[in-house]
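Thread title: Can someone regenerate the structure for this chain?

I was given the following input by a collaborator and told the matching C-alpha cells would be attached. They weren't. Posting the sequence so someone can regenerate them.
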Amino acid sequence: MLFKKSPEKFWNLIASKYAASPVPDRPSYETKIQKLKNYLTPDKVVLDIGCGTGTQCRDIAGNVKQVTGIDISHKLLAIAEQRKAQQIEAGRQLDNVEFLQTSLFDERFAPYSFDVVMAFYVLHFFEDIEAVFQRIHDLLKPNGLFISETVCLGDKSKLSGKLLRIAGHLGFLPKMNLLTTRQLEQVLDKTGFNIVDKTRFSHSSDSEFTLIAKKL
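Best answer:
Regenerated them for you:
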C-alpha cells in the first residue's frame, strides 16, 4: 500500500499499534505539560492539530474552556473518543473536549476562533509550512499562542533525512518535509509571530524543541 496521496490510510493502518505505544519519555512529557499549563487559563479556547489519540487534549482539559482536537485518521479519533469515555466514567470532567476528523484548513474554523493552537509532531507532514503558519496566525485571536514541537529531520543526519524523504516520495511513508529548527523560527517571524519560549524537553534528541510563539 502506498501512502503518498492518502496519508490518512497510513495512520489508520498503524492506529492500534500507535495507540498501544507508551510515551517514549514520560518524565519529559509530564514536565512539558506542566509548563504549557502556565500559559493556559480557564477562558482559553484551544485547537490541537494532529491530535492522534487525544492525549494532550485530555491532559490540558482541566485548565481551559474548550479544546478541539483534529486529525485525518478516523481510527485514531475513535481511540481518542474511547479513552475520553473511559476517563469520564472514571470521574474526570472532559465535557469541554471534542474531536473532529478534519484538517487545519477546514472552512468551519473562522478567523480569530482560538486563543491557543497546538501542533505536536505533525508539522513535518505539511509541504507548505508557510501556508500552515499563516493559517494558524489567521485562526488565532490577537496575542494568541502557537505551541509546537516538531521532528526537525533537516537537523538530523543527512543520510537518515534523505532515506525518509525517499520513502515518502515513493509512498511507503507519508511524505515528510525536512524541516530545521532555524527554518521554523524564520517562518514564524515571517508570518507574524514572536517566539516567547524555546525549550528542549526530550533528552533523546537535540533537534526537537518546543516553541511557544505569540501572534503579534
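The chain has one domain: 7-215.
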